[in-house]
Specification:
Layout (H helix, E strand, L loop, with lengths): L1 H20 L12 E10 L4 E4 L5 H18 L5 E2 L6 E6 L8 E5 L3 E6 L2 H14 L16 E9 L5 E7 L7 H13 L4 E5 L1 E2 L2 E2 L8 H4 L3 E2 L3 E2 L2 E5 L4 E2 L4 H13 L3 E8 L4 H6 L28 H17 L4 E5 L6 H5 L1 H9 L10 H19 L3 E5 L12 E4 L4 H8 L3 E4 L2 H4 L3 E2 L12 E3 L2 H6 L14 E6 L9 H8 L2 H10 L7 H6 L1 H11 L23 H5 L1
Parallel strand pairs: 2-3, 2-4, 4-6, 8-9, 8-23, 9-16, 16-17, 17-18, 18-19, 19-20, 20-23, 21-22
Antiparallel strand pairs: 1-7, 5-6, 5-7, 10-11, 12-15, 13-14
Helix pairs in contact: 2-3, 4-6
Length: 561
């Protein structure tokens, strides 16, 4: 009897040992360009991190950051060393690789990462993180987790250089901490551009020291429309803004993750909050009020007045001081021309510029082209480039502008054929404010539309674009407009897991995409979201509705100030 019991114990012990060394399944999103799995595992907890002197300063920071995080989550010290004889993760410079390319080799003895830049090293560590237990994405030790990597060889690089995600904070504002959490998710999926939509009819969200009324008046509205009842508002004061110090904090945090923040100052439309603050900038002189309902306002900046351009340039001066991005987004979308047609100053400007209506465009549309060109020149003179929504194609567009195509793909196709650089963000695939399921009766209210994860995944940004023009497609971006998104948990719910699908559109070659493989990876993604404390939609696995319990919402004024 004792012998039998001993045998059972031995068998159990052997099984336990086997379980500890069993290679975990690999679920890396976005899917690497090339992945060859071997036999065995590498135990990474406590491994040294080798960062030689050949690494540049930024790459050395990536290695150090990885070591610190690995130490935190495993509970075992991973020291950064110049060389190591034992088990280690080696960061090795390979100048022959492309800017964002990396090689990752895991053996039973260690890990070797090769890259030409900090970006490549960073993406390699992000792939390592997804091969480890979900607890890797936490902020505390999880010593009970199996800190093992499967033996594998990966060579990887992105399809597109521009891999963006947008956030509208004009309709509803989110705290600096929530914006940072948003950036964390972007980094996990290898996105590298954060498009921050900072100004709207419903609120001005960035401190401009030369124009203090923009935040004293323009940052607050006296109510918000209730759901989709256009004639009803809640009567509750709402608003807030980011100080310049908070903006710097976000920009620095994004940079630490390898993400560039691109600010948007939307003009000449979507400017009612600015007009409420400085009514002399409008065609009629007001009075104007920060808009409480959604939709498009007829009231826009007056391009017939020189003070308008002085205002724009002053604002952009402070924006450029805060954001080192090569690009500044100037909007250009949804600008009604009704006021301009009736404005003596605008008509005088049209006459002076000899702008005339033709079969393609009205004189007022050409006036907007004048605004775009003038702002573009100002930014170009200061070493920056513009991005604008595809409406900037209505009229004459100056050379060097980049078009962001949102009204389907047509604007992007047209722009690419004309030789303009393009970022594809068609609403049919990339508007994350659309419903994620057809069960709208139990889903939180959304702006409309239907955009499940599968549809996002199906997007091919170069469809319909001649081969010779495809070089102008810089990349892909998804947009998250927040008319109906007022809380942190709802923001996250609309973002995830659609951002995971977006990342494969941005990163993977067409040959390397497989929706079934991607869908199989989502349970691991859900585990990661749980560890990160994120809300997310489970419609893709047949679960509907949002849990509102997770986060206790604070008043917007408290979050922003």
């Amino acid at each position: 009897m004792r012998l039998k019991f001993t045998k059972i114990l031995c068998a159990a012990f052997i099984a336990a040992l086997a379980g500890c060394s069993e290679a975990p399944e690999i679920h890396i999103v976005p899917n690497p360009e090339s992945l060859v799995k071997g036999e065995g595992v590498f135990k990474i907890a406590g491994a040294s991190i080798v960062a030689g002197e050949e690494l540049d300063a930024e790459s050395a920071v990536v290695a150090n950051t990885f070591a610190q995080h690995l130490t935190l989550v495993t509970g075992r010290k991973s020291e950064v060393v110049a060389s190591a004889a034992g088990k280690a993760v080696e960061f090795a410079l390979n100048p022959e690789l492309a800017e964002e390319e990396y090689k990752l080799d895991v053996t039973k003895q260690g890990v070797r990462i090769e890259a030409a830049s900090a970006a490549g090293f960073r993406y390699a560590t992000q792939s390592i993180g997804q091969m480890l237990p979900a607890e890797y994405f936490g902020k505390e030790a999880a010593a009970g987790a199996k800190w093992i990597l499967p033996v594998v060889s990966i060579q990887d690089k992105p399809r597109f250089a521009y891999r963006g995600m947008h956030l509208d904070v004009g309709r509803h504002i989110f705290s600096v901490d929530e914006v940072k959490k948003y950036l964390d998710v972007m980094a996990a999926y290898k996105l590298n551009r954060f498009h921050w939509h900072l100004t709207e009819d419903q609120g001005w969200r960035i401190e401009i020291k030369k124009y203090p009324k923009l935040t004293e008046i323009g940052a607050y509205r006296d109510g918000t429309m209730i759901d989709k009842q256009w004639d009803k508002c809640d009567g509750q004061r709402y608003g807030g803004f980011y100080t310049q110090e908070e903006v710097k904090e976000v920009v620095a945090y994004a940079a630490s993750l390898g993400i560039t923040v691109i600010p948007e100052i939307d003009l000449p439309g979507h400017m009612v909050a600015a007009l409420a603050s400085y009514p002399e900038l409008g065609c009629t002189g007001g009075p104007y009020h920060v808009r409480q309902i959604w939709g498009v306002a007829d009231e826009v900046l007056c391009p017939g007045k020189e003070i308008t351009f002085k205002f724009i340039e002053d604002v952009l001066d402070e924006v450029m001081e805060l954001f080192p991005s090569e690009y500044i987004h100037i909007g250009g979308d949804e600008c009604p021309k009704k006021c301009w047609a009736a404005c003596p100053d605008c008509q005088k400007r049209i006459k002076a510029l000899d702008l005339k209506s033709d079969k393609k465009h009205t004189a007022e549309q050409y006036l907007q082209s004048y605004v775009t060109a003038r702002v573009q020149k100002y930014l170009n003179d200061h070493g920056r480039k513009i991005i604008g929504w595809d409406e900037i194609l209505e009229g004459e567009l100056a050379e060097g502008a980049t078009v962001m195509s949102w009204r389907g793909a047509a604007g992007g196709i047209e722009a690419a054929k004309k030789g303009f650089d393009v970022i594809m963000t068609p609403n049919t695939y990339m508007y994350f404010d659309y419903y994620q399921s057809k069960h709208t009766d139990i889903e939180p209210v959304a702006i409309g539309g239907y955009l499940p994860v599968e549809t996002v995944y199906q997007c091919n940004p170069t469809d319909g674009i001649p081969e010779e023009a495809q070089k102008h497609i810089l990349g892909v971006q998804a947009n998250l407009w927040t008319e109906y998104i007022a809380t942190d948990e709802y923001l996250e719910y609309m973002l995830l897991p659609r951002m995971a699908a977006l990342s494969e559109v941005q990163w993977c070659s067409l040959e390397n995409k497989d929706y079934d493989r991607f869908k199989a990876s989502l349970q691991h993604a859900f585990d990661i979201y749980d560890v990160m404390g994120l809300n997310y939609c489970k419609a893709v696995v047949g679960e509907y509705g949002m849990d509102y319990v997770k986060i206790e919402e604070q008043p917007a004024e408290e979050k922003a100030e």
